[in-house]
Specification:
The protein is of the alpha+beta class and about 160 residues long. It has a single domain, classed as YfbM-like super family (Hypothetical protein yfbM fold, 3-Layer(aba) Sandwich), CATH 3.40.1760. About 50% of the residues lie in helices and about 10% in strands. The chain contains 7 helices and 5 strands, in the order βααβαββααααβ. Strands 2-1-5-4-3 form a 5-stranded antiparallel sheet, with helices on both faces. α1 packs antiparallel against α2 and α4 crosses α7. The chain is globular. The chain starts with a strand and ends with a strand.
Length: about 160
């Protein structure tokens, strides 16, 4: 399970909404294509994923009382599941609030709450927290989330998020 994100320009959001109604089986493919970009057409990626770090990031961020849940938040876009849950949309204002919070929250603030024993006791997925590399793994994922939200906020874009 990985948490997937894609920034949406107005026309991309309109197309995704259309697909959700008219061609729901194509909607996830469309969002996924935007997320990874297109090498053949030089379209740069519009998204990212957290790999399996999402649950620990959500657990650690919750300890800091963020204004927006960047992992599990947003308004459902459909009842259809894309992998493990339905896609959700973080509105432009949510993205801006989250970007501000994330920019003001260095990873060191999260790391202060990152005790392997606590993550293990809380059964936080994926159960790798006793590994030497776990903290750097989380830091890399956090940096990608921060960068994505900053870029989306700068361009006044909403973000679609789902667990694939």
């Amino acid at each position: 399970m990985v948490m997937e994100y894609v920034r949406l320009r107005p026309r991309e959001l309109a197309e995704l909404r259309r697909l959700l109604v008219e061609e729901p089986d194509r909607a996830q493919e469309y969002a996924g294509d935007l997320r990874v970009g297109d090498e053949d057409e030089a379209v740069s990626p519009r998204g990212m994923d957290t790999d399996k770090a999402w649950a620990a990031l959500q657990w650690l961020l919750a300890k800091l009382d963020p204004p927006v849940d960047v992992i599990g938040g947003g308004e459902p876009m459909t009842a259809d599941e894309w992998g493990y849950d339905s896609p959700r949309l973080l509105a432009v204002t949510d993205v801006a609030d989250a970007a501000w919070f994330l920019a003001a929250t260095p990873f060191a603030s999260l790391a202060e709450h990152c005790a392997a024993a606590e993550l293990i006791a809380a059964d936080v997925y994926p159960g790798i927290w006793s590994q030497d590399w776990a903290l750097s793994y989380l830091e890399e994922s956090y940096a990608r989330v921060v960068a994505l939200f900053r870029a989306a906020a700068a361009d006044h874009e909403p973000i679609a998020v789902w667990m694939g």
